[in-house]
Amino acid sequence: MKKPELLAPGGSLEKLKTAIDYGADAVYIGGEAFSLRVAAENFSGSDMKEGIKYAHDRGKKVYLTANILPHNSDIDEFESFITEIKDYGFDAVLIADLGLFDMMCEYAPEIPIHVSTQANNINYRSAIMWHKMGAKRVVLAREMSFKEIAEICAKIPEDLELEAFVHGAMCISYSGRCLLSNYMTG
Question: What are phi and psi of 67, to 5 degrees?
Answer without folding.
Answer: -105, 25
